[in-house]
Amino acid sequence: MHIVSILENRNTEKRIAVTPEMAKKYIDLGFDLSLPKDYGSHLGFVDSDYSDLGVNISDNEEDLIHKADIIIQLGLPSVEKLDLFKENQTLIGSLNSFANEKILSKLSSKKVNCFSLELLPRITRAQSMDILSSQANLAGYKAVIDAFQIYEKAIPMMMTAAGTIPAAKVLVVGAGVAGLQAIATAKRLGAVVFATDVRMASKEQVESLGGKFLSIEGEENLETEGGYAKEASEDFKKKQEQLLSETLKKIDIVICTALIPGKEAPKILKEEMFKNFQKGSIIYDLAAIQGGNTAFTEKDKVVDKNGVKILGETNILNKLPVSASNLYAKNVFNFVTNLYDKEGKKININLEDEIIEKTLIK
Fold it and tell me: Catalytic residues, which ones?
């Protein structure tokens, strides 16, 4: 069984799907693994780190695709590369199935098995494969670090003979994996942290990390069976806006993480709310890739709105590519292990397995 990974577009994606540590595991599992030349060199993984383990290194990507049984990636390959795919091959990655629906449907009709890992169900057995959790955890951490670096005041409270510097006040919008890590990181660095989320279960999690949860009167539980947030009612949105408008008067830094799978990110920080911000405040919008949580977020730009800086980076993990690759590669290996019939040495697409059934593009 031949497994390969081909080069990503490094202008937009620095992570890789196979690290040397995971390459050894694939080979130990019985796979024939091939990678293109300089596959991980930009992350410090030279070709010999792979070839010494028994990995085949090739300078012909077309040949790699042609002989592959399984192709593992970060994102969806370019159209030119996809045209080389053939029947019964299996593509595994974070394929952004909602945005790339037409392309993936075309691949499926070509009888290419496409597994999009952002669709993994939130069940215990899938935790070791959960790319959203592993990557969002790093994103929440890095968003706080970057926001604090741009903020032009001290973060923790400091008492000196010359006077006291108050602690920075941070608001985290959305208390999923990224939001909870943002809360934990901001608290560790000495900030006072507030958080809001539409899911009732988040309150206890926020408070366990030392954050103050902004409760809304008549709160409704807006959590799907799969553990994701769903869209709020208009009444809930109005109450949330009123509470946020008042809270923003004392906030220095906002970390936005609110996303709804398959939909545009909810606009939580409306245009009229910006009059309540203090000049010099920072907003880091991790939801920028799906349109952003603020009225003024722009993808991969820093927008200055009346003295408030809004950062809208679409792939913050490019700033932590080694750590992110190590976690992603483990997630994918665990998924492949679940998919692979070791005795029969073949892919077993068992649709009675919820993990396989949910991630397969039909």
Answer: 122, 127, 130, 133, 228
